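Q&A log
Question type: sequence-to-structure
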Amino acid sequence: MFTGIVEETGVVERVKPGAKSIELTLRAKLCARGLKTGDSLAVNGCCLTVVKMKGRGAAKSVRVDLLRETWQRTNLQFAHAGARVNLERSLRVGARLGGHFVTGHIDGTGKITRWERAGTDHVLEISAPPEVMRYLVFKGAVTVDGISLTVAGVRRKSFLVWIIPHTYEVTALRERSVGDAVNLEADILGKYVRQFVTGNPARAETRSSGRRISSSRSAGRSRARCPGKCNPDCRPHP
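Response status: OK
Response body:
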């Protein structure tokens, strides 16, 4: 669990594709303090496990492994030597929650469509996939490349956030430009609320005597209904 308050920007040292995973090695200072093999580290908002550390002094090399699923779903696929990435160590129990609850499980990538200065601040507009947009609300929370931000506007296929000078200076956003991909994670609380309100649990399927029995209607066959009243669609079993 993380909070979306970036502690520092690390620098990518090497990206090495392997047969089963992609090795990502980066250099960190602040986040390397107290970090050990097996710990969780958010890299551009993506929760990864530290598999190796080396070096002495202020800066250390930290290696994490990415599965193909993570590689394809995040903007880490565009990482290269010298690129900056946002870093945050996992939240300690009892520590101050400065942002919002961030799991580090990326929902998808968005694309920067507007990135301009507005006075001393910056306005950032991001086009996002439906699986992210459905959870965004005005003044709600969203994670962009591991940064906890407040949604300043919601459009049909995009949303806006404002970036204050401090956030611009201490995160990798200062290296982003229009057209770049950013990692997005919707607020976990919003996901649970939507689940409860819509009453749309995953379909339960079982197998009996080689036949699959589903809770959905198929080919004119009647379907078993919950005998209770857990949602408006429930009816007693026939």
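Response note: The longest strand covers residues 108-118.
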